[in-house]
Amino acid sequence: MSRELKTLLKHGSVYTFGIILGRLVSFLMIPLYTNYLTAADYGVLQLLATTIDIVSTVFGVGLSTAMVRSFHQTEDEAEKRRVVSTALVGAVTLMGTVAGICLLFAPQFSQLLFHSNDNAYLFRIMFISMFLSSGIELPMVFLRVKLRSGRFVLISLLKTTVQLSLNIYFLVVLNQGVAGILYSTLISSLIFIAYLGITTFREVGFRFEFAKYRAMLSFGAPLIISDVSAFIMTYSSRYFLNYLANLTVVGLYSLAFNFGMVLSQLLNAPFMSIWGTEMFKYAKLPDGKAIFSKILNYYLLVALFVTLGLSLLTRDALRIMSKPEFWSAYKYVSLISISYILFGVMYIAGAGILIMGKSKYRAISTALAAVANLILNFVLIPPFGGFGAALAAVGSFLVRVVIDIYYSQKLFPVTYDLRRVVHMSVIFTVLLLAAIGVQIENLWLSILFNIGVVLLFPLLVYATGVLTAEEKYWARRLIKNPIAALGALRSRESVG
Length: 496
Hints:
disordered N terminus
C-alpha cells in the first residue's frame, strides 16, 4: 500500500469516526426535541434551519472548495497562508453583509414562511448564527487540508457537546422551546468562532488580496448551481409541505428524514470517503470493471439490510423516545432511506462520469433531478401529504441515477449482475411489505418481531442463491471469527 493511500485511510478513518460520533450525539437529542416540542414546533425549527442553509449555500459561493483548490495549487507556505487568510476575511465580510441585510428583512422572511411576523425574532437569531458560522467553516477546512484530523474531530465533538448541553438547559430547565435551541446554536458559535478565529489568524496572519479572492469566487460560484440543485432535492419538500399541508406534517416528515438519513451517515458517508479515491485506481486494473459490479452488489446487500432495519424498528424507537403525536413519522422512513440507496447506487454505477472527467453530465443530472423533485412535490403532496414528499424524493433520485448511469455506461461501460440486484430487491420488498402490515401492541414483542424479520433478510440472501460459493465461504468465516476472516482477506489482497 502506498504511503499516500495509508495517509488517506488514516485521516479518513479519523474523520469518519468523528462524523459518525457527532451524528450519533445529535441523533440522541431527538427524544429531547420530541418530548419538549410539539410536531408543529419541530416543523418551525426545521424550516428555519433549511432557510438559513439555503442562504448560506448561495452566498458561501463554494468558497471552501475554492480555498482547498488554491491551497494545493502552490507549494509555497507563505502563499498558502495568504490563500487561507484571504478566503477567511472574504467569507466573513460577505456573509456579514448578507446577514446584516437579512436582519432588516426578518419580518418579511417570517411573513413569507409562516404568514405572520411573530417568528421574525427567530430569524434574527438564525441570521446572526449564520454569520458566526461563516467564521467557523473555513478554519475547520484549514485543519483538514493540514491533515490535523485529531484536532478537527476534537473541536467538532466539543462544539456538538457544548451546543447539546445548552439545548438541554434552554429546553428542559428554561422551557424556551424553539428559541432556546437557536440560542444554544448562537452561544456555541460565539465560543468557537472566537477560538478558531484567533488560532487561525495567529498561524496564517491577517491578509486580504483581492485578486486571490476574485479567483476563488470565479471558481466557486459555478458550484452554487450544483449545490442548490442537490439542496432542492433534499429539502424543498419541507416548503411544499408547509404551504400545501401544515407545520405538523413538516415536523413529522423532518423527523422521519432524520431517521432515514442514518443510512447516509453510517453507510454512504464512510463508503464514499474511500470509494471516491479508490474507484480511479480500480478503473485502471484489468479486472476493474468486474470489481465495480461486485462493489455494487455488496453495497446493495448492506444498504438494503440497514434500510429494512430502519424501516421496521423506527416505529418501535419512536414509541420509546417520543410523544404519541410523533409516532406516525415512521411511515415515511423506508422511502427516504430508499432515496439514499439510489444515491449510493449512482455513486458506484455512475462513477464513469468522474473517471472519464466528464463532470458536466453530473451537473446535468443533478439539475434535472431537482426540477423533477419540484414537479413531483407539487403533484404528490396535495393528495398524499408527507407520503407524497417521500415519493417525490425517491422519484427525483431515480431520475438522477438513470441519467448518471446512462452517461456513465457510454463513457465507461460496465456489465452489472442485474439478476443479483433484482433478487436482493425482491427479498427486501417482500419482507418490508409483509412486516409493515403487522401491528403488535406490545412494544417488546413488536421489537422482537421486527428484529426477526430484519435478520431474515441475510438468511434468505444466503439461502436463495444470491451469493456465490466463495462469497458464502467468506460469509461463514466472518460470522464465526470476524477478526481472523478480515485478516485473511487483507493478506489475500496484499498477495494479489
